[in-house]
């Protein structure tokens, strides 16, 4: 496969992998290509992003490649996270938060298996609002990130610790996850989170 054909595939793979990223071996196996060739294609792709002044970049962290936003744009993402349009958590974010609260530590892939849909954006919202955090990495292929709730989560919901959560049987299975999420919120006092509740201090 030519480098020019490989680059858009790599871009798609890194986008799909999200914040967990992919290592060189994984990408080489998927592309059925030599790792050195894959690395060269990644370097060219990173150069393309920089030359075109794109809003994303490719970074390597501990042998894992991932697509990230540019650090100089951080103030704009902070404004987005705190904008009035995002004052309350979406249904997707609530579902994701409920799953993490009960199943932590849990990976993004495990969350998506329960929800049945991609959860990247919901996770990013929860991370930005400091309701969840990275708590480690799983002992699995690619060492995916594990997520858990934060002290801010406990404070926002008036919990002293995780033992105060409603009955964990709420999330046994995902037959009616939206209904389970509503019950989760009702059992926690029907508290609708606002910017004032979750804006970073």
Task: List the defining traits of the structure above.
201 residues, alpha+beta, Arc Repressor Mutant, subunit A, 3-stranded antiparallel beta sheet, 13% strand, disordered C terminus
Task: Write up what this structure looks like.
This protein is an alpha+beta fold. The chain has two domains: 3-69, Winged helix-like DNA-binding domain superfamily/Winged helix DNA-binding domain (Arc Repressor Mutant, subunit A, Orthogonal Bundle), CATH 1.10.10.10; 75-198, Arc Repressor Mutant, subunit A. Helices cover 49% and strands 13% of the residues. The protein has helices at residues 3-17, 24-31, 35-51, 74-81, 91-103, 108-115, 120-128, 151-156, 177-187, 195-198, and strands spanning 22-23, 56-61, 64-69, 106-107, 132-137, 145-149. The strands form two sheets. Strands 1-3-2 form a three-stranded antiparallel β-sheet. A three-stranded antiparallel β-sheet has the order 4-6-5. Helix 5 crosses helix 9.
């Amino acid at each position: 496969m030519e480098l020019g054909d490989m680059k858009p595939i790599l871009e798609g793979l890194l986008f799909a992998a999200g914040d967990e990223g992919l290592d060189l071996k994984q990408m080489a196996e998927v592309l059925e290509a030599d790792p050195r060739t894959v690395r060269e294609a990644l370097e060219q792709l990173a150069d393309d992003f920089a030359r075109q002044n794109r809003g994303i970049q490719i970074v390597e962290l501990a042998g894992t490649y991932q697509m990230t936003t540019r650090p100089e744009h951080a103030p704009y993402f902070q404004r987005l996270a705190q904008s009035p349009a995002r004052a309350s958590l979406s249904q997707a974010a609530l579902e994701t938060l409920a799953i993490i609260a009960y199943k932590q530590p849990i990976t993004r892939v495990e969350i998506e298996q329960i929800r049945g849909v991609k959860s990247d954006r919901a996770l990013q919202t929860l991370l930005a609002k400091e309701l969840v955090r990275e708590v480690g990495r799983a002992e699995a292929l690619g060492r995916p990130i594990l997520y858990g709730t934060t002290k801010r989560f406990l404070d926002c919901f008036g919990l002293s610790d995780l033992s105060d959560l409603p009955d964990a049987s709420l999330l046994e299975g995902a037959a009616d996850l939206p209904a389970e999420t509503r019950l989760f919120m009702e059992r926690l006092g029907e508290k609708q989170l606002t910017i004032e509740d979750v804006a970073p201090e």
